[in-house]
Specification:
- It holds the Pfam family ZapA.
- The chain is of the alpha+beta class.
- It has helices at about 30-50, 55-90, and strands at about 1-5, 10-20, 20-25.
């Protein structure tokens, strides 16, 4: 079991399973939120693994992280564009 600290404020400890490994996640987020994040990571790892069954777990984890950051950057760009449009409408 591995522990990862997400924050230094009041902390919740939540045990999750990601790709057949158990982790203790420590953070200020609710246990429900932490379980949701873990489930999404697990789902993405299983999806990538099903398309690339020869990948070892380290490469699978890196590809999962790359996919997650790519999705994050796309959503961040969309949000920035929407905020810019809203600001133009206010002016």
């Amino acid at each position: 079991m591995e522990a990862f600290i997400l924050s230094n404020s009041q902390k919740n400890r939540t045990t999750v399973d990601i790709y057949e490994q158990q982790y203790i996640i420590v953070g200020t987020e609710s246990p429900r939120h932490i379980r949701l994040v873990a489930a999404l990571v697990n789902d993405k790892m299983e999806e990538i693994s099903s398309k690339n069954p020869a990948l070892d777990v380290n490469k699978l984890a890196v590809l999962t992280a790359v996919n997650a950051v790519n999705d994050y950057l796309k959503i961040k760009d969309q949000l920035e564009r929407l905020l810019a449009e809203l600001q133009k409408e206010k002016d």
